[in-house]
Design a protein that fits this description.
The structure is a single chain. The protein has 2 domains: 195 residues, Alpha-Beta Complex (2-enoyl-CoA Hydratase, Chain A, domain 1); 49 residues, Lyase 2-enoyl-coa Hydratase, Chain  A, domain 2. The strands form 2 sheets. The chain has a 6-stranded mixed beta sheet, with helices on both faces. A 3-stranded mixed beta sheet has the order 5-7-8. It starts with a strand and ends in a 10-residue tail after the last helix. It has 262 residues and is of the alpha/beta class. Helix 4 crosses helix 5 and helix 9 packs antiparallel against helix 10. The chain has 11 helices and 9 strands. The protein binds 4-(N,N-dimethylamino)cinnamoyl-COA. The site of 4-(N,N-dimethylamino)cinnamoyl-COA has 22 residues, from helix 2, helix 3 and strand 5.
Length: 262
């Protein structure tokens, strides 16, 4: 297992822990290990949901600027696929994911958070896409996922200016889903766990289908999205969970089913 990216498991929730002090700068080693961790938790049947966590002080301050500074166009052209691969791998984890953001989530760090389904942030967290201040643009999905999440005008303003956004502003524009007030060091992580807890023991294949329908649907026109939904919906009638869920409703009323995830 990598030193800078660890996978920890507890009670049906896997945590991908970034650990490259002081700022969790995403160098090539972190990027490769993060992609590998996403593949690992994605296929782990015992992990119902996934937290991405940078520790009690920082989420990630972006790609490693010192590593990138002297790269040539040819080197970056080759390397940029890897950079996009880790956020794609994260976005494609077929189960609910949440970014637990304690401090800075900047540049590639913000893009990692954007590739999760949900974002939970400390009151002191700061998010942003400051790449423009380095003479570049976001390159790990920021121009696309930020615009889809907060709308094109807000995304452009944030990307054009490179300014940092407070947790309160992030909540107001939909960039984060929850702000944690507690000063306790593990409060954000605990809130992220609480957000994912309802999915442990849930209908894993239906959750997977729901995520895929929303995410793939956003990439296509409405008719194609509806077709994606229709096929995924019909496919769930081949699962034990659909049988168990509907039989339980008929016999015991709503919300009492036990799911096997198959
Ligand atoms: N990379 C490397 N080192 C970093 C870093 C980073 N992103 N951020 C911070 N550090 C280092 C600092 O250099 C400093 O190192 P020492 O001087 O101690 O050796 C140490 O971490 C502590 O930082 P500060 O002394 O600056 O601490 P402060 O508390 O004063 O400030 C800060 C913290 C996070 C606000 C500040 O360090 C900062 O502004 N950092 C840079 C943030 C940033 O610009 N992030 C965006 C990076 S660019 C692509 C895909 C993705 C990307 C690019 C291409 N393709 C697919 C093509 C992504 C690009 C980026 O993310």
């Amino acid at each position: 297992m990598s030193e800078v990216v660890r996978v920890e498991r507890d009670g049906g929730i896997a945590t991908i822990r970034l650990d490259r002090p002081p700022m969790n700068a995403l160098n090539a080693e972190v990027q490769g290990a993060l992609a590998a961790a996403c593949a690992e938790v994605g296929s782990d049947r015992d992990a119902a949901a996934v937290i991405v966590y940078g520790g009690e002080k920082v989420f990630a301050a972006g790609a490693d600027i010192k590593e990138m500074a002297t790269m040539s166009y040819a080197e970056m052209a080759e390397h940029s696929t890897l950079l996009q691969d880790f956020t794609r791998a994260l976005a494609r984890i077929p189960k609910p994911t949440v970014a637990a953001i304690t401090g800075y989530a900047l540049g590639g760090g913000c893009e990692v958070a954007l590739a999760c389904d949900f974002r939970v942030a400390a009151r002191k967290a700061r998010l942003g896409q400051p790449e423009i201040l380095l003479g570049i643009i976001p390159g790990a999905g920021g121009t696309q996922r930020l615009a889809r999440l907060v709308g094109p005008a807000r995304a452009k303003e944030l990307i054009f200016s490179g300014r940092f956004v407070s947790a309160d502003e992030a909540l107001a524009i939909g960039l984060v889903d929850e702000v944690v007030d507690s000063e306790e060091p593990d409060a954000v992580y605990a809130a992220a766990r609480a957000r994912l807890q309802p999915y442990v023991g849930g209908p894993a294949l239906a959750l997977r289908a729901a995520k895929e329908a929303v995410d793939r649907g956003l990439e296509v026109d409405l008719e194609s999205g509806l077709e994606i939904e229709r096929m995924l919906f019909a496919g769930l009638f081949a699962t034990d969970d659909q049988k168990a869920g509907m039989q339980s409703f008929v016999e015991n009323g709503p919300g009492k089913a036990t799911f096997s995830g198959s």
